[in-house]
């Protein structure tokens, strides 16, 4: 399990996360929902260890990969090099190219191995970012707004892609303001509003989950 206890995060006088208690079991697809500015990205970054908590504790015995909202691919490296860079740093003896090529083919990126990130579409960049995470075989994949900037048709692809990742045994934590997307994919939805957990629900056990979630968004307007 990943456990946050009494976790707070502040930037100067700005209390962004306020006394969060959250236990995350493996095996699930957790959606972090809530209005813009509610603290979703901050919580995700704290869970990944990209940001230290200001107080409280995080217990996490799992390996974690992070898919950034803007992908953060290495711009000067080819697609293949983006995938092999981190595994190479960890283990210089193994040739990681074969695994990388197989993963790219699986994600529909065959033929793009030598392309630079700037030569790819948004959806392709995202799949490269996902493949780069999967090279490290994480227990958990953390995704920040994976549908932002994609059109509706591509959002269906993201749902399929992330469901596939989950079916391979990787637990997911997805921060997203997109309720249609989250209610399609998540097995648990945690709503963050003004830095607090406002709701923790099972969307599959709720008749009209979107209707239940909507008021948490309207409050912030
Ligand atoms: P969300 O992802 O839900 O939109 P964020 O976690 O990005 O929310 O932001 C929550 C609040 O924290 C916002 O008020 C934002 O301005 C503030 N914030 C986030 N990151 C930083 C930072 N690095 N420095 C200062 N303030 C930040
Ligand atoms: Mg965010």
Distance between the termini: 35 Å
What is the typical, i.e. mean, pLDDT? 94
Shape: globular
Rg value: 18 Å
Portion in helices: 25-40%
Discrete helix count: 7
Q: Which stretches are poorly predicted, pLDDT < 50 over at least 5 residues?
A: none
How many beta strands in the DSSP annotation? 9
Strand order of the largest sheet: 5-6-7-3-8-9
What kind of sheet is the major sheet? 6 strands, mixed
Q: Report strand %.
A: 25-35%
Class of secondary structure makeup: alpha/beta
The bound ligands are:
adenosine-5'-diphosphate, magnesium ion
Order of helices and strands: EEEHEEHHHEHEHEEH
Q: How many domains, as an integer?
A: 2
CATH-defined topology of the largest domain: Rossmann fold
CATH-level-2 architecture of the largest domain: 3-Layer(aba) Sandwich
Structural description of this entry:
Helix 2 packs across helix 3 (97-106) and helix 2 runs parallel beside helix 4 (122-134). The longest helix is centred in the last third of the chain and has 16 residues, at 152-167. This protein has a 6-stranded mixed β-sheet, with helices on both faces. It has 2 domains: 27-53 and 138-221, 3-Layer(aba) Sandwich (Rossmann fold); 76-136, no CATH class. Helices cover 35% and strands 26% of the residues. The chain has 7 helices and 9 strands. The protein has helices spanning 40-48, 79-90, 97-106, 122-134, 152-167, 179-185, 209-218, and strands at 2-11, 14-24, 29-33, 55-60, 64-67, 140-144, 171-175, 188-193, 196-201. The protein has 221 residues and is α/β, with parallel strands linked by helices. The structure holds adenosine-5'-diphosphate (ADP) and magnesium ion (MG). Magnesium ion binds next to helix 1.
